[in-house]
Specification:
This protein has a single domain, classed as Rossmann fold (3-Layer(aba) Sandwich), CATH 3.40.50.200. Strands 4-5-3-7-9-10-11 form a seven-stranded parallel sheet, with helices on both faces. α3 links the parallel β4 and β5. By secondary structure, it is an alpha/beta fold. The model has no long low-confidence stretch (mean pLDDT 94). The radius of gyration is 18 Å and the shape is globular. 30% of the residues lie in helices and 20% in strands. Belongs to the peptidase S8 family. GO terms for molecular function: serine-type endopeptidase activity. It holds the Pfam family Peptidase_S8. Keywords: Hydrolase, Protease, Serine protease.
Length: 322
């Protein structure tokens, strides 16, 4: 069985400091849901990646646990610090805290379970990923919290039944699994490129757009794309307490994982019950805006978290005057 790897991504810049609400967070309209969801408080996202810089100032108090599934650090399961950079970047897009410094994530009060399955070089085994998915679905926090979202910005060419089975089991337990589409795109919407686990029908597969809402030239197009999110020149946390601008569908994926960390508490409080993964998926897709690209390129469109609120505001005057 071949190795699972980080989907190759582009390093645009490494910065010593930052002080901004990233453009991607603004494009998905995350702030529109911060007040009524308490910034995602109570949501736990498992980040299956290269680990995370545990003491990055922008991630203070976000990390609730983790495990190392690689041979790094002599295979010590307790050591899941990031020695690559990619996982820390993903983590920041989901949950960097709002404190007027550095950057801020889509769901700044959500919590992160850091599962290191990729080593310093960005490589790992399918077996490690399967084990990490199982670990995430069985994990319970001190107050019996559980993982509701898994973010996976990784991919490989092989469709492996064991990995698909582990994904289906997690989804049956009410976990939404968000995966990068891959960066093997050729800039044409009429040719299809597949990377796994993104191409599985059961996962939420995310393609990338740029700040102008155009498709990123590298984003994979295929008949299982569910939606798109910002993935070009994305600023987020990076190892050694720094920040970086990276491009890739790897960067689009955590925008959607963070979005779900806001949507799940919002809709479960509205419906006053726990909701299945398919119900949560339909609530996510209700919050997408078509951009005019083909469906195999953009799926349902750009995640737009304020959309349902805008529609309610639009129709409110009619209700008042009936």
């Amino acid at each position: 069985m071949s190795e699972m790897k980080l989907i190759p991504y582009r390093m645009d810049a490494i910065l010593d400091s930052a002080k901004e609400i990233p453009r991607g967070v603004q494009m998905v309209e995350a702030q529109s849901l911060w007040e009524e969801t308490d910034q995602g408080e109570g949501s736990v996202v498992a980040v299956i990646d290269t680990g995370c810089q545990l003491d990055h100032p922008d991630l203070a108090g976000r990390i609730v646990g983790g495990k190392n599934f690689t041979k790094d650090y002599d295979g010590d399961p307790e050591l899941f610090d990031d020695n690559n950079g990619h996982g820390t970047h993903v983590a920041g897009t989901i949950a960097a805290i709002e404190n007027e410094e550095g950057v801020v994530g889509v769901a700044p009060k959500s919590k992160l379970l850091i599962l290191k399955v990729l080593d310093k070089e960005g490589s790992g085994t399918y077996e490690a990923i399967i084990d990490a998915i199982k670990y995430a679905s069985e994990w319970r926090g001190q107050n019996n919290e559980r993982v509701r979202i898994i973010s996976m910005s990784l991919g490989g060419p092989e469709d492996t039944p064991a990995m698909e089975a582990s994904i289906k089991e997690a989804i049956d337990k009410g976990i939404s699994i968000v995966c990068a589409a891959g960066n093997e795109g050729d800039g044409r919407e009429d040719t299809m490129e597949f990377a796994y686990p993104g191409a599985y029908n059961e996962v939420i597969q995310v393609g990338a757009i740029d700040e102008g809402r155009s498709l990123a030239e590298f984003t994979n197009t295929n008949d299982q794309i569910d939606l798109v999110a910002p993935g070009v020149n994305i600023i987020s946390t990076y190892i050694e307490g720094k920040y970086a601008r990276l491009s890739g569908t790897s960067m689009a994926t955590p925008h959607v994982a963070g979005g779900l960390a806001l949507i799940i508490p919002l809709v479960e409080s509205q419906f006053q019950r726990s909701m299945s993964e398919s119900e949560i998926f339909s609530q996510l897709i209700k919050r997408t805006t078509p951009l005019g690209h083909s469906k195999v390129a953009e799926g349902n469109g750009l995640m737009t978290l304020a959309l349902t609120k805008k529609l309610e505001d639009l129709f409110t005057p009619y209700n008042i005057h009936q």
